[in-house]
Amino acid sequence: MSLEARVRLRRGTFELDVELALEAGETAAILGPNGCGKTTLLHALAGLVPLDEGRVVLDGVVMEDPADGIAVPTEQRPIAVVFQNQLLFPHMSAVDNVAFGLRCHGRPRAEARRIARRWLESMGLADQVRARPDALSGGQGQRVALARALAVEPRMLLLDEPLAAVDVQGRAELRRDLRRHLASFGGVRLLVTHDPLEAFALADRVIVLEQGRVVQTGTPAAVTGRPRSRWVADLAGVNLFHGHAERDRVMLDDGGELIVPDAVAGDVFAVIHPRAIALLRVKPEGTPRNVWQGTIDEIDVTGPTARIRVGTVPPVVAEVTTASVDALGLVPGAHVWITIKATEIVLYPG
After folding, report:
1. How far apart are the C-alpha atoms of 327 and 330, rounded to whole Å?
2. Pairwise CA distance, residues 171 & 138, whole Å
């Protein structure tokens, strides 16, 4: 089973333009900031939002192609969607909610309820089969929604922020259960989330979406190890710069330059971990290769460490111990000198 899709649509001033190629056996997560088009993409794949241009092909069958006038209705597509707000029928018990999809697919009532009970048992909800949604916790309700989706044996499973409605205490447990059930599902599986922890815990591949476009894709480690946008860099907790390299210098797009250890040429990304940045109150002696002056904008203390945002060209975030903050008298507004060893700068093609 596989999904090949080109999704192009416009909503007001927002334009979504995404290409996807997914295979069964892997969980892909669409990750990105709020408003980047994640849920719109999921709704388009489900047929809930029509394409302006493009094509959606699932398992070799065209689900939608505006150019050819093809638009298979949502209820006829071999897919299942788990929404963040569950959308359970409030007047139905858990077992009848799960059986509903099966009944819509033509299964007899007794058979549908029998299958639904089996799915609820696999979700650890054997004692909640008669419970209505208002008697279930957020985590239990989401398990019922997942059971309803999987019970109809779809070829593609779409999950829209599946942990968003679950409290913090139940989220970790549901995340483990969800990973187990996703691993046992043989079809195409696509998760939409803005939570990096959720994406990295559940997905084999991460697709980063920003402003309606895919900016990066790869394994979680590959994406965070070599970020290609400021949002991903912030996610990974590193400083990211882009510029043009000539020999041992990188002229940065936002101003300033970096001295690097080896001769390079062309457009590059430069990554610097905050721990690799040293802060001093006086200008350093000697000839360090990267040194400039700035003013502390913000200090964020977490336990024994502090992340310090320094306004300079280029602006940077440094990470030091809280003991260093006290010893150096670092406060917002203080002037500091920044030094970075050239060997601490990681470069890759931009």
Report:
1. 8
2. 9
d(CA 2, CA 21): 7
Decide yes or no: CATH 3.40.50.2300 for domain 237-349.
no
Instruction: Tell me the domain boundaries of the chain.
Output: 2-234, 237-349
Tens place of pLDDT per residue across the chain (350 aa): 799 999 999 999 999 999 999 999 889 999 999 999 999 999 999 999 999 999 999 999 999 999 999 999 999 999 999 987 778 889 999 999 999 989 988 899 999 999 999 999 988 999 999 999 999 888 888 889 999 999 999 999 999 988 876 777 777 888 888 888 888 899 999 999 988 888 988 999 999 999 999 999 999 999 999 999 999 999 899 999 999 999 999 999 989 999 998 888 999 999 999 999 999 999 888 766 899 999 999 999 999 999 999 999 889 999 999 999 999 999 999 999 999 999 999 999 98
Domain 2-234 has CATH 3.40.50.300: yes
pTM recorded for the entire structure: 0.84
Cα–Cα nearest to 133, from 87, 166, 168: 87
